[in-house]
């Protein structure tokens, strides 16, 4: 792989760097410097908005609102790439790259469609393919994730990781939380100059909030079926995550690994609250810091207690009896029941409640110990419109009240996510 010298800071062979700094720090200047200093060896791609740099001669045609102005001869993706192939000195290698990357990036189905019909993600992949036709030794990409939805961001990260195995990758980013795990170093930038080079782990340890959850290459299989494949995922203190994906993609499995309910967690590289699983912590040490509710938990919850007792069991994550509660604990449980508007259920046997009443009790149960990590799997499932609005507001208020509180929430209805959501992970079924 190509070694790069960024005005005195060296990126060695096998290293991949992020240029990181605030707006106006000169990150883009350094990217341009690399493209000029290593002309012919470095391809520079700029993604300053959803479709590309405004200077691109195709930019006008990428604006969807100009669709009605499209000419009959609007170029297709294939035509655009073939023009680039014809301009390469080694056309045979360029054609091989054309076939390789259109297949790798899943572009084959849209190759013969007009460029104006491409989505942001498709256009992003097409431009990366175009840059790779000349077989550059390094890729420098400005703001690769801007304008992309969570699923497309995940897919692009996988593509960039694949590319990093054969060439040096340098990314220009403004947000530290966008740094992919395959990057090895962070170079901070100020005044158009590199300031310091950190290893990725050193940078995260020094400048980012503590890790709450970390999955590293996690794979879960049951027999011949793969549920999760090589999953890398980091949740940091104070982040609020939306976990999405179709049925059967592994969301519940992922959450069971976090909540210490899945014994396969001990065979995986998983850390919780900065401590690797299997290094001496008990299940109860973990559960003490987590508030949790899920459809599976609801089905299995068969408490003989009343509503107050069901909520109180969240204090210890057991079926603890009301008789063992302190007056202070009872007061806290009743306070949370008042927040959720269910004080009238305090004396009602849990098993005599309807399903929606039970669900609100169990959601309330997740909050009762004021956990630093909330894991809410379909918390609004089965609730009427008024209760959905109320519970969503409670989740929002809880997370905003204390910046250190962390949330992971699952729902199949995007409108149910609270406004505090600032991160997302979309899972896909493994093939």
What does this structure look like?
By secondary structure, the protein is an alpha/beta fold. The protein has 2 domains: 4-207, 3-Layer(aba) Sandwich (Rossmann fold), CATH 3.40.50; 211-426, P-loop containing nucleotide triphosphate hydrolases (Rossmann fold). It is 33% helix and 21% strand. The chain contains 14 helices and 17 strands. The protein has helices at residues 27-37, 59-62, 77-86, 91-104, 120-132, 150-163, 200-207, 251-258, 283-287, 295-300, 307-312, 327-339, 355-367, 385-401, and strands spanning 4-6, 9-11, 17-20, 42-46, 138-142, 168-173, 185-190, 193-199, 211-222, 225-236, 240-244, 270-272, 275-276, 290-293, 373-377, 406-410, 423-426. The strands form 4 sheets. A 6-stranded mixed sheet has the order 4-5-6-3-7-8, with helices on both faces. α3 packs antiparallel against α4 (91-104). The longest helix has 17 residues, at 385-401. It is elongated. It starts with a strand and ends in a 5-residue tail after the last strand. The relative contact order is 0.11.
Quaternary state of the chains? single chain
- How would you write the strand order of the largest sheet? 4-5-6-3-7-8
Based on CA atoms alone, the radius of gyration comes out at 25 Å
Number of helical segments with 4 or more residues: 14
CATH top level class name of the largest domain: Alpha Beta
Approximate shape: elongated
**Class inferred from helices and paired strands:** alpha/beta
CATH topology of the largest domain: Rossmann fold
Number of domains in the coordinates? 2
Main β sheet profile: 6 strands, mixed
